Amino acid sequence: MSILTSVLTSHRSDIGLDVRPLSTSLAAEVRGVDLADISDELATELRIAFARHQILFFPELRPTPDQHVTFARLFGPLTRPSSVKPSVDGHPEITEFDSRELGEQRAVSGYRERWHVDITFAVEPPGGAVFHAVEVPAAGGDTYFASTQAAYDRLSPPWQRFLDGLVAFHEPGRNILAQADKYGQPDWEGTSVHDIPRTEHPVVIAHPVTGRPGIFVNPGFTTGIKGFSEAESRTVLDFLYAHVTQPEHTVRYRWRNGAVAVWDNRAVWHRRVVDFDELGGATRRVQRVQLKGDRPTAYATGGLV
Fold it and tell me: What is the pTM of this model?
């Protein structure tokens, strides 16, 4: 069965897992999961579905903080939940994002949400995120996701060959550094965010589980391409940013209170939609656990480098 065929086909396993694809490029909703009763067989099926769809949504899981952490561990070992924000009291694996804080930040700095991949300025960026929508507005506050693997697949062979072997620079940027100073948590796994050198990652990486190639740059933290002039870098990066976010590579997810998502930081970009009044009473409060990642591995047309 091809990747495309498998994505187009809903699947209900013998042990009750119901996987419903949301698009041909990425994402599926999963039903039939009881946090109090996850067998080894079910955990294996969840990991297979995650590798296939890049994002799994669980619409009504409603985990406690302890269940959130335990559930996240099904997908791999954990790393720090944030490079800048403190953890939730009593739960060092979880960090919380409250829209009211972000609204105040935007009111002062003018910063706006944009497409990004979490913490790619680190040598070993997180492998994924396990995200719990604790409280969301009645309308608004959705999240867009984009598949960098589907985007790579839809490039022409000459573009693929051109990108394979290129290396990009990643840096935290002023917003991350300002947040680190504000919250007093300026480090990532023991290294100060201020001291992290400009990091180099392949422009096209091979997924460590599936081997599938994906574009590993993002508007949040990529600052240039090694060996290219600033103008040349900007031309290539602007093309890739526009290409990855084409509608056929994306999904927009409407959160419900209690929903959980697991997304692959090595294959997916995300961007929050700021379309509600963050300082006028509507609240979007979410909690995140991060999965540990490895140093990205370069891909060359036809296989690993």
Answer: 0.89
